[in-house]
Amino acid sequence: MSLPALRALRSRYPKAQIHLMVNSPYAKMISFLNGADQIIEFDRKDIQDSLLSADRPVFESYDMFKEFIGRMNENKYDLVINLTQNKLSGYMASMIHASDHIGLAVNSKDQATFGSPWFKYLNDVASSGADTIFHYADIFYFGVGGVKSHQDWSIPESHEGAEELEGFYRQNGFTSGPKVVLQALTSDEKKNWQSSYWLETVRQIKISVPTSEFVFLCAPSERKPIESLASQLKAMGLKCGVAELSLAGAYSLLSNADLLITGDTSIKHLAYSTRIKILEIALGSSDKRKTGAYKSGSVILSSKVECHPCEHSKPCFRDKQYCSLQISPELVALTARSLLLNDLKGLKILAEEYEDEAHIHIAQNSKLGFWYTLSMNKNNQLSDLNAQLEKLAWFFLLEKEHLKSLAVFGSESNRLSEELLNVYNDDLGAILEKMIVQIETRTQNFEGRIEKIINQVDKEIRNTNLTGDFLNESLKLEIINLEKDLKLGQFLSEKINLSDSLGIYKARQLHNTLSDTFHLQKIKLKLIRDLKSQFKDKL
Amino acid sequence: MIVKLKSKNEKNIATVNGKLLCSSIDPLKEAQSWVKKNAQKINTQNQIFVLGAGCGYHLVALTQNHPGLNIIVIERKEELIDFCKSEHGLDLADVQFVNEVDLQHLKVNSIVKKTLKKKYAVLTFYPACSHNLDYFNAAEELLLGRVDEGLQFILSQRDDLKFISQNKKIKVASNELISIKTLMQMANSNEHKEEIVVLKALRELVN
Lengths: 539, 207
Hints:
The complex is a heterodimer of chains A (539) and B (207).
Chain A (H helix, E strand, L loop, with lengths): L2 H10 L6 E5 L3 H7 L4 E5 L1 H9 L7 H15 L4 E3 L5 H9 L4 E3 L2 E2 L5 E2 L3 H10 L9 H8 L15 H14 L6 E5 L11 H14 L4 E5 L5 H13 L4 E4 L3 H10 L2 E4 L3 H5 L6 E6 L5 H4 L7 E5 L18 H5 L2 H12 L3 H10 L4 E8 L5 E5 L5 H18 L10 H16 L3 H37 L8 H14 L6 H4 L7 H35 L1
Parallel strand pairs in A: 1-2, 3-4, 7-8, 7-10, 8-9, 10-11, 11-12
Antiparallel strand pairs in A: 5-6, 12-13, 13-14
Chain B lengths: L1 E5 L5 E5 L2 E2 L6 H11 L1 H5 L3 E5 L5 H9 L4 E5 L3 H11 L7 E3 L4 H6 L1 H6 L5 E4 L1 H4 L3 H12 L3 H10 L4 H4 L14 H7 L6 H14 L1
Parallel strand pairs in B: 4-5, 4-7, 5-6
Antiparallel strand pairs in B: 1-2, 2-3
């Protein structure tokens, strides 16, 4: 997901040396992507082991860490960019000296700076549970100054990879039928789909697409369980290869196969610039809004259970993994079939028939410059359209587009209308009459509510002189209700819950957040009104 | 008193008070296996303490597998140091032996004090420590710094860590080991901002 950001940096600073610091286990994968001049490995595990081992000196980890930072500072960087949103990386970023920092940097007093409105958005909005958020790849891309255009993730297929793949096909007796690649395991148990479901899915796909051939893709550590699956399929009379390939070989496989069925894995991101179609099964903590398969046309199945997506890095708290159990092999097999046969209408039917079981979304890389998903269920068209408008409004706000004297509302609305024509063409009349007007009315209502709240907050700040809690209970409740109606997670309430002892800081934070929310609605309204006039001309 | 014997594969080995100081079957294989087992601890180090000179084969294995590594051997019995030197000669030419009878003497040993100023690892070759477990356990605790006495000793050698000792001494329960959390409690956070950030970053790794 960092590759577009790296390419954007390369484009902005063609003569710069770009070094990428990664956790050791990921160094090989990152190196393959060829986005940086140097990969610097951070051995997080070794430092962690030193901290947790009673038989290692108490200051060993301290010395290891300081040495690492010292080596980084020898490189005398001009710019440090943090694409990892956690405290550890924030502290590390602040310790690496540079004239500029982009992304989270946290100092000794735990004060955070972001260096870019996009990374502040990542911290304040994307991490606060808001409903509509940008994909992480977009946040990173625009955060480092990428310009609106097709995100560049392309990687050329290598000769070695192609040869390796050819050898694998020969050894396993593959023919020319459509190839389905199965990435059954992820890095997190919670994100794995039931093993037995994979078997049943293959069986059903084989029935509906008899010429299809199957390959399980696996890492060396996954060989045993994957071979077990392949053996079980063999016992069912179904042939399935097990491909433990190099990265180059895996990339060649993805470049030459027809469909990838996967959980939330780096393989799905690797597949972006290949011709393969992607069917993602989003389970556990995998959140399609943030890390969904980026490739346009990818289908993402996600569970409808309330607890999904769950918290990252924590085990499933329920007695069974319901998100995994709920998505049936039948649905996956039928979705796979629709993708293999380019049957978009079939997907829409599935979305309605299996409405109780899962969300079915298609990923889109829009002309607007960012990624979004469309629900295949017609009943969700309103929320989809609202989400696109919301994202576009956020884009304007974060890029301060609305402050420019020649702001590009008109051209962006034009792009949006073209995008909508493309997506909804046969439903255009319905969109114009029902959905846009509904969204406009709601947005006007929100605009009014926020303006009223801002005035009340400002009044309270003046009256109390910031001694103690300057928000009365009914005002707090109004803000919380507004936040709930706007589906902003805890974007506003996080500011209410700041300690009163912070005084003017708390007041400023709350005021600025409300102000941003207000501007967001204003921008959205302007876009909606431009959109309406665009459609009037087109119809 | 040490007693010299032959291992099954005809290598010279020794016992102290009837306790074997290395394998009686194949001390070379045992030594290589011990070095391999401790690879993670050794790999990123320039200097290591080894507790127990024993029969010296583990020390030779260390020098062979990690040339250039600064090895400091802590051994109470001078006879064992002599045994190792006579058995392994040049193979142990660059190894430093520290022969002190108790912790108080270890604390004033110049080689030990110098080594503590920079990053190091502590390895224990258990067969070599079997003749005086109390001494070696105490030495290990001292050098690891995970108990109060060890921590205070290390802090006294490190000028760069004065910000930790400047604050009030935190009482650690006898069965509790010193960790990053303890260090953070002890650190003076008003100054030494970069050092405090290091501790905070490390704290995130154990959360």
